[in-house]
Amino acid sequence: MATQTPIEQQESSSASASAGAKPGLRKPVFIKVDQLKPGTGGHTLTVKVLNFNTVPQKDRRSVSLHARQTRIAECLIGDETGTIIFTARNDQVDLMKPGTTVILRNAKIDMFKGSMRLAVDKWGRVEVTEPAEFVVKEDNNLSLVEYELVNVAEE
User: Fold this and answer.
1) What is the pTM of this model?
2) How far is residue 19 from each of residues 9, 10, 16, 25, 27, measured CA to CA in Å?
3) Where does this protein have compositionally biased stretches of type Polar residues (predicted)?
């Protein structure tokens, strides 16, 4: 009688279990605002909306009359560790009302004029949730930190 090592047992049991069933969704890992870094993505956060500013659109004469206008708003959002500017687009604009608590899924960091902006594209999701109990730390705004791209020469 052949015995299996624990690793072989785990591989054979997971292979037989996954053969008939769809793989399950991973549980989201929620992070805090102060953990955001330039050039990163796939973040899930629970934040409060502090303020909301609609970005005026430039008049584009070359765009056809039937083209859909993109609505953009910049919202200051935050949690108990800090704040950042979130760029809301189209339907997301309607959800971002001051005082609301939202969950941002699959959010990414975009750089705009050397500073970080949080955004959720078509692969992510913005959803309103029940009000959170935390107090937003407004004196740590990550969008006010200016970054500079530096090329490092390899020797």
Assistant:
1) 0.74
2) 15, 14, 5, 16, 21
3) 1-11
